[in-house]
UniProtKB/TrEMBL annotation:
<keyword id="KW-1133">Transmembrane helix</keyword>
<feature type="domain" description="Band 7">
    <location>
        <begin position="20"/>
        <end position="178"/>
    </location>
</feature>
<dbReference type="InterPro" id="IPR001972">
    <property type="entry name" value="Stomatin_HflK_fam"/>
</dbReference>
<dbReference type="Pfam" id="PF01145">
    <property type="entry name" value="Band_7"/>
</dbReference>
<dbReference type="InterPro" id="IPR036013">
    <property type="entry name" value="Band_7/SPFH_dom_sf"/>
</dbReference>
<keyword id="KW-0812">Transmembrane</keyword>
<protein>
    <submittedName>
        <fullName>SPFH domain-containing protein</fullName>
    </submittedName>
</protein>
<keyword id="KW-0472">Membrane</keyword>
<comment type="similarity">
    <text>Belongs to the band 7/mec-2 family.</text>
</comment>
<dbReference type="InterPro" id="IPR050710">
    <property type="entry name" value="Band7/mec-2_domain"/>
</dbReference>
<feature type="compositionally biased region" description="Pro residues">
    <location>
        <begin position="362"/>
        <end position="374"/>
    </location>
</feature>
<feature type="compositionally biased region" description="Low complexity">
    <location>
        <begin position="347"/>
        <end position="361"/>
    </location>
</feature>
<feature type="region of interest" description="Disordered">
    <location>
        <begin position="347"/>
        <end position="374"/>
    </location>
</feature>
<dbReference type="InterPro" id="IPR018080">
    <property type="entry name" value="Band_7/stomatin-like_CS"/>
</dbReference>
<dbReference type="InterPro" id="IPR001107">
    <property type="entry name" value="Band_7"/>
</dbReference>
Amino acid sequence: MVALILLALLLIFVVVVLAKTVRIVPQAQAAIVERFGKYKASLPAGLNVLVPFIDRVRYMIDLREQVVSFPPQPVITEDNLVVSIDTVIYFQVTNPVAATYEIANYIQAVEQLTMTTLRNIVGGMDLEETLTSRDAINSRLRGVLDEATGKWGIRVNRVELKGIDPPPSIKDSMEKQMRADRDKRAAILTAEGQRQSAILTAEGAKQSAILNAEGDRESQILRAQADREAAILRAQGEGQAIQTVFQAIHDGQPDQSLLAYQYLQMMPKIAEGDANKVWIVPSEIGKALEGLGSTMTNLQGIPKDATPRVRVDMGETNPAVAQESDASRAGAHAAVEEALAAARVAEVKAPPAPGSADAAPPAAPPQPGAEPPA
């Protein structure tokens, strides 16, 4: 029985010795070993063997980068405004021995050092500069912290300001100022837009007026040119028509019978007017016709044996059409002769009025082929 107890005690002693001798250090950590209260060594990650009951692990230091967020701290700016600033520190232990023996609590030391340095930096800035100079504050704060914590075996990698909160009254004033500034910029932009719109509208009206004036000018020029060309064409047409009629008259060789026939055809048209209530046919119509024919025959405009100086191109002449024209001309001449003979007979049969100048004996009818009296 005593042997079993001794064996159990021996087994327990062996376990305790092994526990004191063998130490396993996790990755990214360092163990600080002391011997009789004095620093002995730093154990790396992995399996390590110690002298039991003599060496012991005093601290386990985390070598990874750590993030510490500090609560908001009141800071007074240059213009005597209190703002609350909370910061975030990214640091890493580079020397476990210095972090263990050079300072008692390096996290608290970093926090206090951050607050004091931040008050010094922000105290030289006004509120507006503080709100707009985050990068400058971060750079200056990191430089001071990195220099101060180097002897503690700590390296400050990054410093960030999470928030800068001015007092509520200052926030309200800033919001009013921001609204006023935005309203001002909106009014300026609106005025500039209206000005640009007015300028563009005026330029458009100017261009429109110029184009309308140019269009009216071109239109008037084109109308004037069209009127001139139309007048020229009408004058040329009238001239060609006159030449054509003049040539036709001379080519037809009009005589007294044709002119008398034309006179007889015009007499009903003369009597067609509404104002011609009474129209008396003279008894000497035959003589009048003869005198008119002789007079028209001897006009300068229609000479007996004359041809036009300027010939008008009448186109190709069809022989059949020419024969028909000669036949129609002969028929018209015969009709005129018959009308003249009828007029002379009517004149002979009509008794003259007593005491008038027309009581003279009628003239003998002219012989065929004789020249009518002038």
